[in-house]
Amino acid sequence: MINDQIERWLITAQSLNDISYTTMNRLPVTIDTIVPQYQAITDQVDRVYIEWFEINKRRLTRNTLSGNTILMQLEQGQEWHHGDALYHNGELQAIVTVKPTLAIRFNPSDLVQLADFGYFVGNRHLPIFQVDQLQSLHLPYDGRLYEQIAAKYGASVQLEEAILLSENRIRRQLKNSRKHEN
Fold it and tell me: Quick check: 93 pLDDT over 50?
C-alpha cells in the first residue's frame, strides 16, 4: 500500500515536471505585478506549478500548463502563495499553484504523544504543518523518518498527498501569534 502511494506520487510529480520544463526555448514573459491570493480562480486561467519548498525563491522561470514561459520575481522578504495571480502589462498570465506532495500525517492520540512527537522530529529541522483546525500535523515525506515514526507511533501515522502551504507552518503561526501579543 505504501509503495503504491509512493509510486503514484512519483508518476504525478514526473508528469508535472514534464509540463514545467518542456519549452524553454522562447524568451520568458516577465511578470510585473503580483496580486496576492487571487479570488476569482476559474478553469480558464493558466497555471504555473511550484514545489512547496520553492515559495521563498526570489526568481523562478517556469512554464505554465499551456506552455508559456514566465519569469517570476519577488521582492526581498516576500514569498509565493498558492493562488497568487501573475500579471504582465495588466494581463493575467497565470495563477501560482503549489504542487501536492507526499507527506507524513500524524494524528496524536493525546497531548503527551504530540509532545513526544515534537521532541522526536524537532531535531531533524523539518518544517511541520498544521492540518486545517485539527490537531493533526503534516511533515514532508522523508523515507527514513517515516519508517522510524511508523514503528514508534503505529496507526497514528499515515502517508498522504497534501499541499504544504506556508500559512500552515507551525513556526510561522507561532511568529504571527507573538507579533499580535506585543
Answer: yes
Triad 102, 105, 106: Cα angle to 5°:
155
* Residue 49 parent element (H or E): strand 47-50
70-102 in b/e form (b: 16+ CB < 10 A) is bebebeeeeebbbbbbbbbeeebbbbbbbbbbb
Contact 126, 76 (CB under 8 A): no
Sheet strand arrangement including 59-63: 29-30, 69-73, 59-63
Query: Which of these, 58, 96, 60, 59, lies nearest to 76 by C-alpha position?
Result: 58
Contact 109, 157 (CB under 8 A): no
Q: Using CA atoms in the order 36, 127, 7, 10, what is the torsion angle rounded to 10 degrees?
A: 40
Q: Which three cell numbers stand for residue 27?
A: 524568451
Encode pLDDT of 122-156 as tens digits.
878 888 888 876 678 999 999 899 999 999 999 99
